[in-house]
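Anyone up for a design puzzle?
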């Protein structure tokens, strides 16, 4: 699992530009099960086995947060539009830009040039720029064009302290890794696995894939924000690293199926797997569209708790990742029998 997570995180792919991630997944599943790519770029895998009582589909999105280049200035600096990230976390970050994977850094107006009101607020995205070391528009334009992808350039740290991992794109390469492992497993039941595109932008990949696969039971494999950091109020911690995978009852887009929610906790108990719920209604994921596709589906979300989600340096714990994979394998058989 650890080497797989590393390979997936080292691939780069923001919403709508997931081809490099998809290529890694295709290599990992070569000879394992039939694969097909739909017109939007979703990768759909069919696991053979005994027919499940209901159509069972697992979803994990391939894309990561990042940005799109929108304009090249006369000074050679790049303006950009964030995808899935807040401008407050961007100043001074190193990035990779465009088809040539050029190094760059996100800059802003110098502190001594700020007006009084600007000193007291985080800069907006339109006040930021990417410096790739180009002298002017002509030089930058030889390497970069509007629409090019931007991703963070922080290193993968597979062993951070005692049992932690730190990387960009853990959201949601962890979900992808777990779906790959599930497809490789000896689960005796047939199911469909969908590696989706566009979750961090508009959920366009999951919307199309859910309509195409028509799940009756849908399981979303994700990451979710843990607030167990210094200074967080108790009611804002919501979930924590080291306490196992997170099974949600609701978020801002979905009321998750009560039967599946209860079965997930019962399955964890039967298999001696630590599990927690998210003690609050925050965020959203692909459940908001897969549950309402076609004739509708029962939806469950299983997430790995992470600190600093939607940033350049996401932190997770290996025990949570491994326990999540164990729970997902057990749930595949439990849900298939419903």
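Challenge accepted. My sequence:
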């Amino acid at each position: 699992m650890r080497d797989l997570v590393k390979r997936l995180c080292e691939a780069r792919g923001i919403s709508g530009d997931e081809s490099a991630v998809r290529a890694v997944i295709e290599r990992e599943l070569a000879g394992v099960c039939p694969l097909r790519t739909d017109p939007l770029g979703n990768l759909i895998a069919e696991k053979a086995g005994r027919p499940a009582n209901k159509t069972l589909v697992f979803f994990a999105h391939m894309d990561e947060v990042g940005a799109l280049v929108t304009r090249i200035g006369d000074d050679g600096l790049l303006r950009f539009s964030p995808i899935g990230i807040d401008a407050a976390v961007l100043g001074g970050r190193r990035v990779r830009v465009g088809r040539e994977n050029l190094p760059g850094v996100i800059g802003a107006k110098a502190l001594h040039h700020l007006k009084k009101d600007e000193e007291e607020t985080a800069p907006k995205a339109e006040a930021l720029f990417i410096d790739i070391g180009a002298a002017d528009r002509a030089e930058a334009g030889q390497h970069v064009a509007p629409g090019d992808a931007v991703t963070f350039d922080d290193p993968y740290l597979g062993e951070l302290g005692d049992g932690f991992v730190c990387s960009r794109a853990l959201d949601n390469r962890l979900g992808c890794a777990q779906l790959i492992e599930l497809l490789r497993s000896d689960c005796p039941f047939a199911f469909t696995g969908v590696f989706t595109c566009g979750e961090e932008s508009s959920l366009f990949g999951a919307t199309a894939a859910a309509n195409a696969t028509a799940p009756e039971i849908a399981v979303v494999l994700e990451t979710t924000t843990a607030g167990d950091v210094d200074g967080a109020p108790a009611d804002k911690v919501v979930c924590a690293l080291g306490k196992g995978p997170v099974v949600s009852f609701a978020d801002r887009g979905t009321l998750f199926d009560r039967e599946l929610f209860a079965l997930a906790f019962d399955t964890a108990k039967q298999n001696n797997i630590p599990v927690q719920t998210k003690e609050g209604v925050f965020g959203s994921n692909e459940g908001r569209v897969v549950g309402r596709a076609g004739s509708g589906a029962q939806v469950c979300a299983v997430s790995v708790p992470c600190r600093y989600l939607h940033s350049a340096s996401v932190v997770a714990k290996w025990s949570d990742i491994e326990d999540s994979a164990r729970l997902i394998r057990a749930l595949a058989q439990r849900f298939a029998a419903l």
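A detail worth pointing out: DSSP finds ten helices and 16 strands in the chain.
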